[in-house]
Amino acid sequence: MAPFKSLLLLFIFPSLCFAQPQQPDNRKLQYEDFLYLNNLLFETKNPISISYQPLEVTNFDFNYLSRKGDFKRIGEGKNETILNGKIYGIKKIDRLSFEGGIEYSNAKLNDKKWTNTLFVADDNPFFLSDSIASDVNSEKFNLNGGLSYLLNKKWIVALRAIYNVGSLADQTDPRPKTKGIQFTLNPGINYRLNDLLSIGASANIGWMSESTAYTVVNTSEPNVNTLFLQKGLGSPEIKNAIGYKREYDGNQWGGNIQFIRENLSSFSNVFDLGVLHSKEKAKDGGTDFDYNGGDYKATTFTFADRIRLGSKQLVHNLSMSALYKKIDGTWYIQTQSIDKDGNTIWGIKDKSIVHKDNSIQAYLLYRMDLLKGENPHLSWSVGGKYLNSEIKQYPELYKQKYSLMSFSGNITKHIIIGKSLLTFGIDGELIQNLSDEIAVSGSKLASSFLEPAFRAISASAYSGGLSASYKRPMKLSGYPFIFSIYTKASLEKYNDQDKNYKKTDRKAIHFGVSLVF
Amino acid sequence: MYKKTFYLLSLFTLLFVTSCSDDDDDVAKNYEVSIELVTPESIALDKISDLKVVAVNVTTGSETTLSLTDGTVKTELTAGEYNFRASGNTDDFKLNGLINASVYENKVVRLTLNIVSGNGLIFKEVYYTGVMAYYWKDGFYEIYNNSNEVQYLDGVILGIVDGGFGAPSPWADEDGNLPERYPMINHTVYFPGSGQEYPLEPGKSVIVATVAINHSARELTDEDTASPVDLSNADWNIYIPTQASDIQVSGIPNTLVAYSTWGLDFMPRVNGQALILAKLPEGTTVESFVANPDNYQKTPGTGLWNQLMIPHEYVIDGVDFVYPMEGQQYKTLLATEDVGMTWVYGNDGPGTEASYSGKSIRRKVAGITEDGMVIYKDTNNSSEDFILGGQTPTPGVHPTTIDD
């Protein structure tokens, strides 16, 4: 992994080099909006989008997020505080463009239980689990670097690399300690057919590894030795938590193609199709024994289309996307024996798919930006989302199924006062449960885990938030930069019938400071 | 230009097509299992009453009670490793049978019922879990005469069978079959007497204590929990002369040691370990039995101990007390002694460890005679005969009501 990290740092370093001292660039006041509005490929998976970035920027950002409330999904803490610091930059040197960043986050999660994973897929049904609520500390570090090169008038080639490393620890028995690492390579090409049209292709190749080891200090406390080997909707296998270890190894590969019509002064369109295969394999026991904890295999098909219609005063963006994901979870039936040296051996007697998960998601978003100069002074958007998910457990034929529809809206107003910029935003979302069904009554954790988890993810709810920021161009020893402070408060309220969640909500407050060069 | 577009689209189409393969045939299924019951030659199947057939998934611990039609049991089971158990009674005998079988296809299982052993001496209640902090000396083993004849304790062996603690017995062969002789571990003790010195009347019991003192009066420190038992009135004290920390108690007779491997005292694992009561054939004394080198075998694999082996036909009662965690429960006794298994779980309920829970496990009361004698349930199936999970110890106390 060391050569990859060196390569990554080579990409990141130039992107974080400050631009030469110059006059303040007003575009940087709202650089995130500017990048979105002027780079049609901004949200695609193809790293050639780095060549399309319309400005150079370096951003130092430090922020604090606090969330609390009982309307929480499985794996979330009742109270969460997250400190985050990141540096992000874009740099262009002749035909070369760099984009990258470094990010560190430190989270404290109070009253968290059931999950202890970092980079394992959220929908992987095979995870270690305990029912004791704990205070958890989590650290994550991210390196992200990309390079895009204009070979000639026709071709662009690019490569992005992403490296994540993290750890998670809990000081309440049973005490899992999780360490994870994830590396992704994302190469891409683009071929220009004519002045307006181009086609692109990108690949996504990734590896992950994660390990969890449990210790128990005070073995006399209730339930501290009980560890569940979760396997979807079925009854988990129960093991002794003392000294239990699990390792995940995973990989992913896939690709996207893009068809691009680019004319920022009138009609532009990006059409993207993608497919991604992911595999994760859990092995338990470490050096003591070798036990298969389940194989996860997922395939995701994506479609996305962004239509941009712009003039000097007004820009319309219509984004549509859809996703279909299917997951197979394979479980092994294993029997224990002792070899002649007294070592424990688990032999595989049978394997079969016990978990099937199919989901469809569709999004539609319309955004309008009214421009003053190159930046928007008013932006608003409306959107809708549809989600349908069905999980089946074999051979018990347990089932959970639900569908949701949501509508969201956002208005952001930017006000220039002298050299400063004040921004106010308001957003809201209404989530409506269209149907739900859960039939897991024979499963041992039906009432304590599966049903509460299901009621949280399938719930009707509404949410809203208010945000404000203040930005001011400044100079330090003649060096121009933009100082920014921002805050956001939001509330999510449960709006359904389940007695465990009725009248619950989740509040969040977010503060941050950033320096943009 | 169009060729390049064509190649790109072809490659992507290939990616999509390979992603769309479906593997519904690989999903986990249920299989049809037929169980044919085979009875001893002299006993017809229709003469057996209270016949019960159970399939126990070894991995999950889930039990399925099966119903009998025309001498055959048919059911659908998920794939896995199973113990199929059967038990029943005739006017003269108790019968039971056990077979391990793998179910990964439709199959027929032949389950043989055997006449079970026993002379009326049984474990009425056993307490091996101890209390915090790590105090296990308060164990006791209450032996009851469940017959209507006087039984003699002279020469009766009390032993712990090697194995247990959440793993298969190291003595099982590659197919999981247990040996015909039981390997003894820790200390194997026995009652003194030449034959008729220590009678036990019908309906009476004796309490054999690890240490016959009042444990509930033990001085406690911060992490300690009071023991639930006062064993100062025990009938027998297990004294291990080779262990300096063990004690004799004035006025209470000691059992004798037949053979030892290791251990500070007589101490089955605090999470459970199989126990037996055995009586050697007429003419064989315990002393002559332990002096015979043919009655020993080295621990398989490690060769750690030279272990005393007691043939299963000498066992008059055996109970497979196993580790309470699901999927980690393995038998160490043959079906002829105990077709089932039982366990104590922790104070937080099923799925928790029994260790230092302060709970004992007692046999169910099957009936009470007109003259007040308690008849404990004894079908050589501890899954049915004992109250699963455990209870507060009641040494010397016999219930006055029948258990369900």
Could you please describe the fold and organization of this structure?
The complex is a heterodimer of chains A (517) and B (404). Chain A has an 18-stranded antiparallel beta barrel. A three-stranded antiparallel beta sheet of chain A has the order 4-9-10, with no helix packed on it. The two termini of chain A are 32 Å apart. Chain A contains three helices and 21 strands. With 517 residues, chain A is mainly beta. Chain A is 7% helix and 65% strand. Chain B is mainly beta. Chain B has helices spanning 2-19, 286-291, 382-385, and strands at residues 30-38, 49-57, 63-66, 68-69, 72-78, 80-89, 94-103, 107-112, 114-115, 121-127, 140-145, 151-152, 157-161, 181-190, 199-200, 205-209, 236-237, 256-260, 275-278, 296-298, 306-311, 315-319, 361-362, 365-368, 374-376. The chains are: A mainly beta (517), B mainly beta (404). The interface between A and B is large, with 46 and 51 residues.
Structural class by secondary-structure content of chain B: mainly beta
Task: Kindly report the average pLDDT value of chain A.
Answer: 91
Overall helicity of chain A:
under 10%
* Largest interface, C-beta closer than 8 angstroms, per-chain residues: A-B, 46 and 51 residues
Which shape of chain B, going by the Cα principal axes? globular
For the biggest sheet of chain A, the summary is:
18 strands, antiparallel, barrel
Q: Structural class of the helix and strand makeup of chain A?
A: mainly beta
Number of helices of chain A: 3
Q: What overall form of chain A do the CA principal axes indicate?
A: globular
Order of helices and strands of chain A: HHEEEEEEEEEEEEEEEEEEHEEE
Q: In total, how many beta strands of chain B?
A: 25
> First CA to last CA of chain B: what distance?
84 Å
The quaternary state of the protein chains shown equals: heterodimer
Distance N terminus to C terminus of chain A? 32 Å
